[in-house]
Amino acid sequence: MAFYGHVIKALIETKHALLPHEPNDPAAAQEEQLRDLLETAKDTAFGKYYNFAGILEAEDIRTAYGERVPLHDYQTMNEEWWKQQRHHPDITWPGRPEFFALSSGTTGKKSKRIPVTEEMLECTQRVGRGQAECLANFDLPAELFEKDILMLTSSADLDEKDGYKEGEISGINVSNMPEFMEGVYKPGLEIAQIADWDERVQRIAEEAPKWDVGALAGIPSWMVMMLRKVIEHNKLKNIHDIWPNLSVYTTGGVAFEPYREVFESLLARPIVIMDTYLASEGFFAFNARPDTMAMEIALDHGMYFEFVPHNERGFDATGTILDKPEVLDFRQVEEGTDYALIVSTPAGAWRYMIGDTIKFVDKAKMEIVITGRTKYFLNVVGSQLSEEKLNKAIQVLNKTAGSQVKEFAVGAVKRAEDGEYVHQWILGLEAGELDAERAKQIIDDHLKEVNKNYAVARQKALKDLRVKVVPADRLYAFLEQTKKKGGQIKFPKVMPEEKLTDLLAFLG
């Protein structure tokens, strides 16, 4: 009998019932988060420059904050402030950060360095505890609460720099694991510190029979590769043959739906799948209840959020933010509208645009979904295709054709024969076969049906679609050229013409 599991489950359910994790007044909670951030950082160089003390005395601190502090992208924040923060204390946050997170980025991009303070780590852990408490909403067996948790992260072997350490955010988080997690965390710090992805996965496959894994966490593309390695190495039919108590998978990093069929094919039975929004800049939202993949935004965990409409009120046609965009707080957002997310955090990020777009699907429950990136949408000829719509097209393709497209890339390229634009799709198959012409027809028909801008573009400037089908491993090999493989690395869905041409040349 799982005595401790029953105790832990009862404690979670009791706390969840008596002390609901969500704030009774989200708007008031957000004002409190902003006030705490400003108060803590008012004596830093950034706080003095933008007069945080004066903002705190304003009748409406949210309005005053928006008027006095400009929006920042990474380039501005890094060049003007964060570079100094690596060597000097009290620049954008009290003291010096112990860590800098290297953003996973995408092929061909130089990694960004995002400060990670002790307060930011505590903030991330508070959001994690909030999600753990929401397990009370799921009908999970008590035995699960005694099982191992396998987190597939980037390498925890952090690089020593001038008084700080740097690595990808998942590696930093694992290196700062709460004590209560140490007994159940797998694969353990020794394996997690192996820098080479293939070697690390091989070790996981070898050690897998020793563990009783009840929960998984990690980006779906690499999770699928790891599970297949465990299955192949141990000569299994499915992953439940070795981990029969596996009941929960916490996904994140990229949209899960394009990977659902491939992932579920590795299981013997359905498990609970929970989404998370964990970026280099913070842990922003998590799935809090069953029967949805929408995530509850963490409004009372130490961060302040603002939202810029991802339309003509906030951005131009190239995805560049306007000089004077409309900026909203939580009280003003509407369901169903795409917004660029702006964050202020205890890492010393101030009105910082991280580049993601989200939309509220249930404002009363504070639930959002990630819809893509501010610049990762396909609009060269007015097709207005967000990453969310592209992911949905692949989901429809897999369901209609019975295919297992695991990764994809798409971009607008000019035809050599006449200079007219076409959409070039590259589809990475996990297994099986897929006829390129049938895939083209399914994708084209679906996008015409759900997106009127795309339908109009197909009648005018967008002359055709081209589809190339390759094994997914070939796309990962392209990533490996730039030493970007495993962990938190995401394959770019939308590519500029030059990068797409490089990929096509690599694929031959």
UniProtKB/TrEMBL annotation:
Residues 298-362 form the GH3 middle domain. It holds the Pfam family GH3. Residues 389-498 form the GH3 C-terminal domain. This is GH3 auxin-responsive promoter.
